[in-house]
């Protein structure tokens, strides 16, 4: 009899790879379909029903381990690897309990025919059926007055507003995104009389907008991720090759479309199985902050610090099955690990900073003037003002302040210090120039994570899942004695989600198989102080 537990499933660009008892089977089809069961049965020499059992078991235990595998869930998009990863992370930030911690949205700014709508629709396709088709609200154009009346007395929280080919967002939408609430007082004719009324919409939606030239609020740009699609010659060739293959090979097209449908279903399952209203703790964040403080503080991430935090939290949520998790009352707390940072840093460098080919004429002129200005002032003050840049470029100061510089800032080229008068504008350094170093932080990060878990357990939290993850176990097995007090050391089940005798699994079963805490007498105050240090 075949042992389904021996199955291992992974997602690659060319299909699903299922390894079972030393045999590898590639499934380039809808993995949830009967066809997949039949293919698997033929390759393994078993019945379709047995093939289904093996596949179902492999799917049940599968969860993406990194962003590369998540990217493979969108095979219909050629290239754009970093943009896909950023878009998915931005969407998963919607799972955070606190709206202020979420990414507000994505603004895709590229030339006509660059594929902006195709990219956006492909990312949103798996989510469209959710909430009875009301999760994604698509508009070609939206006015402020329409928004006020359409969403009167409705909850917009976590709704995705998809605006196509827009240059601006109505002020009402900006207020809803930033404040999480829209309350408008106006006068309307009721029964032939003008009467004052109030319109109120609750919740914070998520904006996904495509545009050739965004001219919306600078504040909105700073709270969203502004991305540009790849307009290179190489990307054009990739798309041509892909479209040629689909048009010339009918069998391949049929199988590819089935594969895409299956991937969309799997992504939808991931979304639905991921908990909402969660809290995320990043115990090692101080290690990264310390690097900024000891190096050059005028880095572009100074502006993007909150975005970095939001993306780290989104990564922890997306990969929550591989992260330590605890519960406090009804709240789920996910602990971010250094793996989240390792995946996020390359995205900040490659996607937050766009290529020069995606700069407008005014943006390119302003950036060149800033570079020349800093070169002249090499041994003096290294920043410029709007007035100085206006003199060098001939672009009006107001245009630089409200349009050009905010977009350069959102694209990661400049840093603006708005706490000074006049504002100071500097050319941003890349992460390579700053030298953010992850190597060597593993031991310190793991220690901080272990101490964080210890402090949370002592404050009343419980392990969230009784089938504890490998990652959680690795953090707990090193110093299990720090999780116990003299009063509770004899009862390890006190830290279990379930009561003793109800299938509870204690933390000690995942270490070396013995309860080291029983021989320890550790005071709570000492553990908490160590965890806070």
Structure description:
- There is one protein chain.
- The protein is α/β, with parallel strands linked by helices and 533 residues long.
- Among the domains are: 4-62, no CATH class; 96-231, 3-Layer(aba) Sandwich (Rossmann fold); 354-427, Winged helix-like DNA-binding domain superfamily/Winged helix DNA-binding domain (Arc Repressor Mutant, subunit A, Orthogonal Bundle); 440-533, no CATH class.
- Helices cover 43% and strands 15% of the residues.
- It contains 21 helices and 16 strands.
- The chain has helices spanning 34-44, 48-61, 67-71, 81-92, 116-124, 130-133, 144-150, 171-179, 218-223, 233-248, 250-273, 285-294, 305-318, 338-350, 361-376, 386-393, 397-410, 431-434, 442-458, 470-476, 524-532, and strands spanning 8-12, 15-20, 23-27, 105-109, 136-139, 160-163, 181-190, 193-202, 206-211, 225-227, 279-281, 325-328, 331-335, 414-417, 424-427, 462-463.
- Strands 5-6-9-4-10 form a 5-stranded parallel beta sheet.
- The longest helix is centred in the middle third of the chain and has 24 residues, at 250-273.
- The protein is globular and about 75 Å long.
- The N and C termini lie far apart (54 Å).
